[in-house]
Amino acid sequence: MARQLLSKPAVCSLALSNSRALASVAPAQTATVHQNKDKSLKDMPGTTSKLAQLWWGYKNRSRMHEAQMELEMKYGQMWRSSFGFNDNVNVAHVSLAEQLLRQEGKYPKRMEVNNGMQLYRDLRGYSYGLINHTGPEWRHLRTAVSKRIMRPKEVPRYGDSMNEVVTDMIARFKYLRDSSGEGKTVPDLTNELYKWAMESIATVLFDTRLGCLEREVPEKTQQFIDSIATMFKTAFLISALKPWMLTYFKPRVWQRHVEAWDTIFGVAHENIDRKVLDINARLSRGEELDGSFLTYMLTGTDVTKKDLYATVTELLLAGVDTTSNTMVWTLYELARHPELQDRLHREVTGVVSAGQTPTVEDVKNMPLLKNVIKEILRVYPVLPANGRVLDKDIVLGGYNIPKGTQFAILHYNMTRDPEAFEDPERFNPDRWTRMGTEKVNTFSSVPFGFGPRQCAGRRLAEMEMYLVLARLVQTFEVRQLTPGETVRPVTRALLVPGDPVHLEFMDRP
């Protein structure tokens, strides 16, 4: 399965010591923007030796989140570095990140680190889609997609299909637990949640079931899952090389990357083309069209099929590892905090009667459930870092930074800043309640990004996680198989568990 194809990196610790809070920061590194305006980018601390940075990146590839915290203690809240052939400015303080993001223009641009993604699409003639499109083309595509999946009033239309998938997942959990988990555990929990997430988002985007939760996963679906794993596994090396190196030397890693993308895009082709045939057949019979996402995109917008192939593929990829890993961490922390789990169970059962399925409307009355997810995304941000390229010159932290400079916004660093969060290492969902005493800066934890470039599937992802968590808590009491066992996060582009998570799933009375 997808997780099994990734090489297991060295385990790293969750966070550094609180001595981080005591590290001194030079005046030029604070959020004040009116001082030292004569300083240029070359005066910023850090290193720009590309060879040294390549070695540093390779050496720390599985612990990048922790290594960035070490660099913050060395250089301060903002420093220069490079990745491959790209120069970066790293931002590790919430005030600096807020100022940076609030200066985005009409067409914000992501950091350019994945040369392979663009090069593959050039090679095959595919659209750049939501991730790599820029300017008016990006805005046009983003607006069309947002109308159907970003507006809160639109998301509930997918609740029933999401719940159908959760029902199948619960049944599969019980089958696996009773048949191969000695009546207690769900073997390979991370992989099972991965399959739930893929089935769920595919149901929304393709309006069809892939069969990820069947007793035997269909061969084509398994190939799709394996190809996603291969694509992510090869992406790191690809992104560190120049495009001409890939096309001229054609290294094996690039060939595997292309083969993986061919399979991934093939699934989008097949499902979208099938939907076109279905729509034409319905129209020829005089039938009404359904309200699915694909039907809307094909008949209610002027988005081309070429753009749709790329966009749906991106939404699918962005919505699988992100939600599945978040749910792994959620169950892990609930098992470690049984009192919190009991409180959450009482909340869910207080809203939903026994035997009933929690709905989108029910979730609105579950504040603790939402806070649990919010806190998980703080402690284990899906993306330890995110990037931006601004379209104008700015002054940040006392430095003149020219247009086109790439910024890395270090979410992992910011969520562990004691200035932003009291006792930041502690998993505490109650910090997010309005009854709490903490005043949290919105930008201190932005797991879905901020502004026009924030995650397009945010509303879908949140609803998926709310519904599945409510059902899991309603159905099972989750315990650690080995009490006190600690699982550390590692960086594999996303922040994921470095070891298998072993949990018991005991039926609630």
From TrEMBL:
Compartment(s) where it occurs, according to its Swiss-Prot or TrEMBL record: Mitochondrion inner membrane
Binding residues for heme: C455
An example Gene Ontology biological process: glucocorticoid biosynthetic process
EC assignment: 1.14.15.6
Keyword Ribosomal protein belongs to the record: no
Pathway: Lipid metabolism; C21-steroid hormone metabolism
Keywords associated with the record: Cholesterol metabolism, Heme, Iron, Lipid metabolism, Membrane, Metal-binding, Mitochondrion, Mitochondrion inner membrane, Monooxygenase, Oxidoreductase, Steroid metabolism, Steroidogenesis, Sterol metabolism, Transit peptide
Alphabetical list of PROSITE patterns matching this protein: CYTOCHROME_P450 (PS00086)
Gene3D superfamilies noted in UniProt: Cytochrome P450
Chief subcellular location: mitochondrion
Cofactor(s) for this UniProt protein: heme
Membrane topology: Peripheral membrane protein
Keyword Transferase: no
One example GO MF annotation: heme binding
GO CC terms of this entry: mitochondrial inner membrane
Pfam families: p450
PANTHER family with a match to the protein in the record: CHOLESTEROL SIDE-CHAIN CLEAVAGE ENZYME, MITOCHONDRIAL, CYTOCHROME P450
Designated name of the protein: Cholesterol side-chain cleavage enzyme, mitochondrial
Gene label: LOC109474064
